[in-house]
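Crash report, auto-generated. Payload:
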Amino acid sequence: MRLALDAMGGDHAPGPIVAGAVQAVQADAELRVVLVGDQAQLGPLLGPDAPRDRLEIFHCTQVVGMEESPVVGMRRKPDNTISRCWQLLAQRKVDGIVSAGNTGAMVAGGLMSKRFLAKVRRPGIAAIIPTFQSFCVMLDVGANVNPEPEHLFQYGVMGSIFARYLLQKEKPTIGLMNIGSEEAKGHSLAKETHALFNASPLRKQFIGNVEGRDLHSGDADVVVTDAFVGNVVLKTCEGVFDFVMKVAAKVVLGALDTERGKAEQALQGLAARYHYSEFGGAPLLGIEGVCIICHGSSDDRAIKNALAVAARYAAVHLNDLIVQELEATQPALAPEG
Amino acid sequence: MRLALDAMGGDHAPGPIVAGAVQAVQADAELRVVLVGDQAQLGPLLGPDAPRDRLEIFHCTQVVGMEESPVVGMRRKPDNTISRCWQLLAQRKVDGIVSAGNTGAMVAGGLMSKRFLAKVRRPGIAAIIPTFQSFCVMLDVGANVNPEPEHLFQYGVMGSIFARYLLQKEKPTIGLMNIGSEEAKGHSLAKETHALFNASPLRKQFIGNVEGRDLHSGDADVVVTDAFVGNVVLKTCEGVFDFVMKVAAKVVLGALDTERGKAEQALQGLAARYHYSEFGGAPLLGIEGVCIICHGSSDDRAIKNALAVAARYAAVHLNDLIVQELEATQPALAPEG
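Recovered output after restart:
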């Protein structure tokens, strides 16, 4: 397995990014990582213990900034790390790419490559969300701000394959994010998507509308929505988690005397368990090859886990399974308009 | 002050609804409450201690169910509690109305009444959200699923008046819910709303885009968004809060021995402090009179607090202040299309 890693992307790049790559290849003897970025900066970061035979540097000189306009940045900087990652993928020199850099540029690279899987209309970003039982996957969280109902239907198909093979859900349930449980609720996108699922071979997996408060219940293994709602919800989850953990720590630790240390340790363990770095980034589903988009503030652990997810994704040939499932469910879709 | 209360609306009606009304009039000697609902059920719920001189029953026979289609329900049941509340308001027999019943029916009642405040294009529901510092107000969370940029601008105006006079924010900041901090982010509704604020007299209060993770930071005192996003975000906050409190309680209490009771008490206090019942419901801003929409599972405390919020809203003449502010900022708006 060979993956390209944007070594210059992310708030803390390149130090923790390179460290994550070293940990990933140390943990997986089959893994090779191509570090894409400035050789002069990256070389010294590879310590004496790094397995250099499975870590190479692909030198390039430019980086699209985290807050930079993706399209402008990529045009002005043709030698940027993200475009180079996509080129390595297009040339089949790597099986997948991973970046904690500018999310918009990663998505734009995928859209510009036009290397969508057969039958896929628009790729979508899938985020992994913790539930009381285990995890669910919500998509799209950032690629497709103005989707059509068919796109959301395909997100259900792709998300259910992801949930089945990477989250070990035997028969994943699919829910539609909406503002009420009744079928007639919501805007036209929601109503039309609801009808598409009910008219499709996936109707037995489709559990109808889910609301924001159901996300963590675990009832839906896959939650489909547009990128605007998905992105806002994902970041709201992050914000509320942070808020509650901080106020809970304050009141609990303030109330204790002798066992304060134990409580603090328990809360720290909980924060680590649900930290985004644990899930290693969000896959862009629907493109040829593997593309994992990481949180901007990824640390070494997040990068290590993202590389591991990318390797597993490629190893189980998830894209072949997605194409098969799309073919099996496609008859329900109207011709592209 | 005289308020009508939908005594039959909500998951637990009528018991806790009537109890909340009794507590509210006991706490405020100026308050009179008209209980709207079935006299035979409501009469016996008024105990011997209830101040009967300030609690009357307006008898009606029907209720729109919590899951019932609002429009169908209101048409089929002309003598329903929600329509009767709106009629009492239209006839100026009460200053405000409060219901924990079918939210869609409450909104539909307001839209059908057509008694919008001068210059208001569409009413919006404002939810009060806790922040690290105090509270912010997010709207719309349920009235207007397909808004125009002008509607969102007016939500900013109305929300800032609410924040100023009911949340004691001297000069409230206004943020636009979006998927990134840069001006060019998001769908056309977001971009056009952004431009409207920047071209208006409110530009000094407008802090631009806010993301889901900023909601609890307190940077924005008012967050404007469409009803779909606002409703999903509000319920996501509720779900994540519940999720984190449960998993935190589990790990913390599991780690403690002698001080488990203290930690449990601290967590219960925290859950009560941020429980929706503390904020007493969400006002529908932009209509003549006062309308407070409560959570379906409201208990007596929620109803008591909602009645208190409605009384304060009416007492400070918030609607007059909203109309003045809309007149002052209106030049920025294009004529209704």
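Post-recovery validation: The CA atoms of residues 128 and 137 of chain B lie 5 Å apart.
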